[in-house]
Amino acid sequence: MKNWIARLFGGGMAAARAGPIVAQAAAAPATPAGRKDQDLWHCLTAGATASAPTPQALTHAQLVLAELDRLIASPADAEGLVPRVPEVIPQLLRSLRDEDASSADLARLVARDPALVAELIREANSPFYRSSRQVRTIDAALLVLGRNGLRMLLARAAFRPLIGMQGGRHSRQAGPRLWNHTENCALAASLLAPSFRADPFEAYLAGLMDDLGLIVAFRLFDSVLEADALPREPAFVDALLARTRTLAARIAMQWEMPPPIAAAILGAADQAPATALAGTLLEAERLACLRMMMDQGVQDVDYPGADDSADERTRVFERLLGP
């Protein structure tokens, strides 16, 4: 990993800009989206947050924000913290878009990877698909999942190691919660997409990409914080999550994901998203955060949606995964 701490301490302008970041963020008005972000951060960092900030912790927080700003400008430099998904995934996705590819072709493709075969069979037998009988073969599993289900499984299999990579104290502690949130955000987005007239698979990819900036942030904290505590001041959390969202969108563009995905990640920060995909992602974020809060026993967890489709949100919420 690059010695970015030394660069910031000795880098003049970058270090100087870090100082007023938290104060500037404090002047921003609170929004319902900000509340969701605060709740998400508190859930992800439960047991590792500081009740009162120390001068050293504030300095570290400023350094992390400044480094996130640098990575937003140069997203390729984040590769040491969250490496690019394997090229095999875009190749497989292109194969799945080929309508001339037969089920036998897809079965042969999947059969090359024993781990993928196991994941495919396990997914086909999961409660999500509610198969009437036990699925034991690749062909039967492909029939249950369909092309879209297989695309989602491949994408999830590619992203899981990014969060499960070896890291320091903060990454290891937050990792399982963060992956659970990522899975639920992607799942909720894919289920909500038809009601928003968005593409379900693009929604799923947007949900998987949504937390990548947070992965980077936790690994940056691993580098600078010797104590267990992470800052939780509202102004800092707002500043941090605004940057991690922007970085996630920049990484999506760097990885050559479909252009609507980066736009949706940025657009989901608005309470009235401009695109169907951004609206889908915003609602998925709400439900994934709500699932995490309820699993942790947090009270006052009602996030009203942008419309009156409460029944649809309830249906989707009930299909989200527990810890």
TrEMBL record:
Q: Name one Pfam family in it.
A: HDOD
- HDOD domain location, by residue? 82-271
Question: Where does the sequence pass through the membrane?
Answer: none
Concerning InterPro entries, the annotation shows: HDOD (IPR013976), RNase_Y/CdgJ (IPR052340)
Q: Which PANTHER family match?
A: HDOD DOMAIN-CONTAINING PROTEIN, PTHR33525
Protein's name in the database: HDOD domain-containing protein
**Species annotation:** Massilia aerilata
Its lineage opens with:
Bacteria, Pseudomonadati, Pseudomonadota, Betaproteobacteria, Burkholderiales
